[in-house]
């Protein structure tokens, strides 16, 4: 089913000390509790290494089965005959960065995927011929953010691709031949955020935002003078703009699937017949917005809808697949996801999400009504203690229910009631976005921290998506305000429940979670024992002044949700909510991780707060990666940063850690500040990595 390709509105932005020997330091770090000594330490390689196999997919023609697997540490695509997984062969050959997602072209003979350079998010779209292994760059343009906008079985050798090569702020739509790379301009962007296309590759709507953050749907029109233009089709007020919008067409192109929260709180799914203007309610839930959709592979009718409050629930709309889903629900004790289907709809791939084990992939034969096990995402998890994930709902001080997820150290909660026998140190793990959410399931960070002796709490604070418009809009203008109050309320809840020790709580997160960390150590400096900020903005003013150019169409949303950076009054308010303004309030240890090529939260955000802390002689540890962007995509960099992080946490919370060892060996890590503040880091770090990394040649020339 062709879907609206939305702009990135939901995600703005993941030693020797004092002359003592490492052995002395380790001896001085008392374990969080006795179970920590009894539970085997799970190696970082098991927790954060690339999966052995993942992302099983069946080709549309039913001929091939594909999956991701590492080659020399880099995830690439493998393809096997549908009935002979052992005959799988590597078909892509990326040697520098993981292929993190891919899809089949409707030819049934080509793999499509996107790749950037060093995390800069200037994506290129590639097509690989699975028979020959030849890979073609379909968008060989430097400095351009390419994205796949649509595919249709009616045009198996073509896809729709958005390119911002004409104007950096706007993506035009091209029809691209995956065999030859030829591209044809289908729709020039008149200044909108995105387009809605159908199965016939027709542009049916443009979607954008008014200066007042209303969502505006425009339909192509021809004026009296014969010139093509756009007419207003629908205007959605700012209160509903994030929970209302198009979700694709059926096969005929006459029925628009539409999520709508107007006149209600949660986004329900409707079928809107554009010929008759009749709207039919398909699925709704009074606690959660529409989530995952299962659609027929050729008819594009909606067959089932997933809603996630604490756990995912499926509403089956089409009796044709009821028996299939009911059978599959009984195959494994986990949450079911249908990941691909053949055009004949006789073969599916499915995955099962567990909270205490790897993803499990199956090939489902619909004719025989039989699921065949393919593989686990990891086979190196045996022999370790994995913990369950609890899903408490915490009430904020003003009465909002916050769906949360809690993991406890193994052995600390014998009766499994979600409360340890004695309070333990805790890490508050704050999700990014903020227009995203935490979910139930296997979480390597929860498992890692629990194994090291900490409770781990993830909170869907106000502004998190999936819980209705009221919950999202409750966060408007509340960065470092009520959004942070929610996190403090969660900490107080954990202390009051006997879960967390009051003086041993760390706040940690990436992107918005990194910002929340910086807010935590500045606005509430007495609450947290330490903080770990990963690619978090330190100033909301410089954040909004340095956005990627193609975010320009969604800036009205940012103004509504965050504040107006374009006016002096707005800037003053944004500065009041910026941790950089309150640097002198920091009292507790802080670890900062940053990618040098981050286009969303630029290196400036980390540099300026580190410089401000150093100017005030406030200790800080700064970890920088010259080959990363918004988060740490490379396996060796994840491993190295987490080696620093767990040693930092052990020093400040008293848990266990796996020594740094050779974690830095293959990594691009630099620690230009505070290497001596974290046990084992200074020893393991080459001397030349204790300074800022050298600028690339182009940037050095520009700086000079």
Structure description:
The chain has about 700 residues and is α+β, with helices and mostly antiparallel strands. It is about 20% helix and about 30% strand. Among the domains are: about 20-45 and about 380-540 and about 580-704, Rossmann fold, CATH 3.40.50.1820; about 50-190, TolB, C-terminal domain (Neuraminidase, 6 Propeller). The strands form 8 sheets. Strands 28, 29, 30, 31, 32, 33, 34, 35, 36 and 37 form a 10-stranded mixed sheet that branches. The protein has a 4-stranded antiparallel sheet with strand order 1-2-3-4, with no helix packed on it. A 4-stranded antiparallel sheet has the order 5-6-7-8, with no helix packed on it. The protein is globular. The termini are far apart.
Topology, please?
Layout: H1 22-28, H2 35-38, H3 44-48, E1 54-58, E2 64-71, E3 74-81, E4 89-90, E5 102-104, E6 110-115, E7 124-129, E8 135-137, E9 147-151, E10 158-167, E11 170-177, E12 183-187, E13 194-197, E14 203-209, E15 215-222, E16 228-236, E17 245-249, E18 255-260, E19 268-273, E20 278-283, E21 290-295, E22 302-308, E23 312-316, H4 322-329, E24 335-341, E25 347-353, E26 360-365, E27 370-376, E28 389-390, E29 393-395, E30 401-407, E31 424-430, H5 444-451, E32 455-459, H6 469-473, H7 482-496, E33 500-510, H8 512-523, E34 530-534, H9 540-545, H10 555-561, H11 568-576, E35 590-595, H12 603-615, E36 621-625, H13 635-653, E37 670-673, H14 681-684, H15 697-703
Parallel strand pairs: 31-32, 31-33, 33-34, 34-35, 35-36
Antiparallel strand pairs: 1-2, 2-3, 3-4, 5-6, 6-7, 7-8, 9-10, 10-11, 11-12, 13-14, 14-15, 15-16, 17-18, 18-19, 19-20, 21-22, 22-23, 24-25, 25-26, 26-27, 28-30, 29-30, 30-32, 36-37
């Amino acid at each position: 089913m062709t879907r609206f390709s939305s702009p990135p509105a939901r995600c703005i932005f993941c030693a020797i000390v004092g002359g003592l020997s490492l052995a002395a330091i380790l001896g001085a770090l008392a374990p969080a509790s006795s179970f920590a000594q009894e539970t085997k330490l799970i190696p970082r390689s098991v927790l954060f290494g690339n999966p052995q196999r993942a992302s099983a997919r069946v080709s549309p023609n039913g001929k091939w089965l594909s999956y991701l697997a590492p080659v020399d540490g880099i995830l690439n695509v493998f393809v096997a005959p549908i009935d002979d997984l052992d005959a799988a062969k590597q078909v892509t050959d990326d040697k520098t960065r993981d292929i993190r997602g891919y899809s089949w072209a409707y030819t049934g003979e080509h793999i499509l995927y996107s790749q950037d350079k060093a995390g800069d998010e200037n994506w290129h779209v590639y097509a690989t011929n699975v028979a020959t292994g030849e890979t073609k760059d379909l968008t060989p343009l430097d400095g351009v953010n390419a994205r796949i906008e649509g595919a249709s079985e009616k045009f198996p050798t073509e896809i729709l691709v958005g390119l911002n090569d004409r104007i950096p702020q706007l993506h035009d739509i091209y029809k691209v031949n995956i065999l030859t790379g030829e591209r044809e301009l289908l729709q020039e962007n008149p200044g909108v955020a995105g387009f809605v296309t159908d199965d016939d590759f027709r542009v049916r709507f443009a979607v954008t935002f008014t200066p007042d953050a209303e969502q505006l749907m425009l339909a192509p029109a021809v004026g009296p003078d014969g010139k093509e233009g756009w007419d207003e089709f629908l205007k959605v007020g700012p209160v509903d703009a994030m929970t209302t919008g198009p979700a694709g067409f059926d096969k005929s192109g006459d029925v628009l699937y539409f999520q709508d929260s107007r006149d209600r709180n949660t986004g329900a799914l409707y079928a809107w017949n554009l010929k008759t203007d009749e709207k039919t309610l398909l699925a709704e839930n009074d606690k959660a917005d529409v989530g995952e959709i299962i659609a027929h592979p050729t008819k594009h009718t909606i067959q089932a809808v997933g809603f996630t409050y604490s756990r995912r629930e499926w509403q089956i709309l089409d009796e044709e697949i009821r028996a299939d889903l009911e059978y599959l629900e009984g195959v494994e004790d986990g949450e079911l996801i249908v990941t691909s289907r053949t055009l004949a709809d006789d073969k599916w791939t499915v995955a099962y999400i567990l909270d205490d084990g790897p993803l499990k992939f199956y090939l489902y034969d619909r004719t025989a009504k039989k699921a065949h096990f393919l593989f686990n995402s990891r086979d190196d998890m045996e022999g370790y203690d994995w913990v369950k994930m609890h899903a408490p709902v915490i009430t904020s001080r003003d009465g909002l229910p916050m769906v949360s997820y809690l993991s406890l150290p193994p052995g600390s909660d014998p009766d499994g009631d979600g409360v340890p026998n004695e309070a333990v140190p805790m890490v508050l793990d704050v999700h990014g976005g903020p227009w995203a959410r935490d979910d139930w399931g296997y979480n390597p960070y929860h498992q890692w921290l629990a194994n090291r002796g900490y409770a781990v709490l993830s909170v869907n604070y106000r502004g998190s998506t999936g819980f209705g418009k009221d919950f999202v809009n409750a966060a408007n203008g509340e960065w470092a305000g009520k959004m942070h109050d929610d996190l403090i309320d969660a900490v107080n809840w954990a202390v009051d429940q006997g879960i967390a020790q009051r003086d041993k709580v760390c706040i940690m997160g990436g992107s918005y979670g990194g910002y929340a960390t910086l807010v935590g150590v500045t606005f509430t400096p007495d609450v947290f024992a330490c903080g770990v900020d990963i690619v978090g903005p330190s100033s909301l003013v410089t954040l909004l002044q340095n956005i990627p150019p193609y975010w320009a169409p969604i800036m009205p949303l940012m103004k509504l949700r965050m504040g107006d950076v374009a006016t002096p009054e707005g800037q003053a308010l944004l500065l009041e909510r910026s941790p950089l303004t309150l640097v002198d309030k920091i009292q507790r240890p802080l670890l900062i991780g940053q990618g040098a090529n981050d286009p969303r939260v630029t290196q400036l955000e980390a540099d300026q707060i580190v410089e401000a802390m150093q100017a005030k002689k406030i200790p800080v540890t700064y970890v920088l990666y010259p080959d990363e962007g918004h988060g740490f995509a490379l396996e060796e960099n994840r491993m190295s940063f987490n080696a620093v992080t767990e040693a930092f946490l052990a020093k400040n919370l008293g848990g266990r850690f796996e020594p740094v060892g050779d974690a830095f060996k293959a990594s691009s890590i630099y620690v230009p500040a505070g290497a001596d503040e974290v046990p084992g880091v200074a020893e393991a770090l080459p001397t030349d990595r204790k300074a800022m990394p050298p600028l690339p040649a182009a940037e050095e020339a520009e700086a000079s």
